[in-house]
Design a protein that fits this description.
This protein has 129 residues and is α/β, with parallel strands linked by helices. It has four helices and five strands, in the order βαβαβαββα.
Length: 129
Amino acid sequence: MGLFGSSPKVVIVEANASLAEIYKVRLELIGYKVYSAYDGEEALRVIEKERPNLVLLDLMVPKIAGDQILATMRANEWGKNIKVYIISNLNEADAPAGLRDQGIEGYSVKANLANDQIDQIVNNILRPA
């Protein structure tokens, strides 16, 4: 059954529903339980409810921006220890300052990310060798 007793949970916060679906299908194929949220309000609801092992966080989502989602998680008992990996259209230099200070696992730019890399990123964080 592995370390978690059941499948690790991943929440994908991504405004582009078709991209979120690609990530979701890929991650489900390799054994993760995946939830998607398409805006910041929905993201915080799902994260608080499911307490995932990892959040894949887009910065540019409607209603509540990604950096604010992260700040809200870190300010709350339920979210302060959840792993977060940022996937954004922005280069990290152009992203809101201070993301690294809030404890992220890493940062990727969407344009540079092949679909199969999402598998590797998640496995490296949740199933390290």
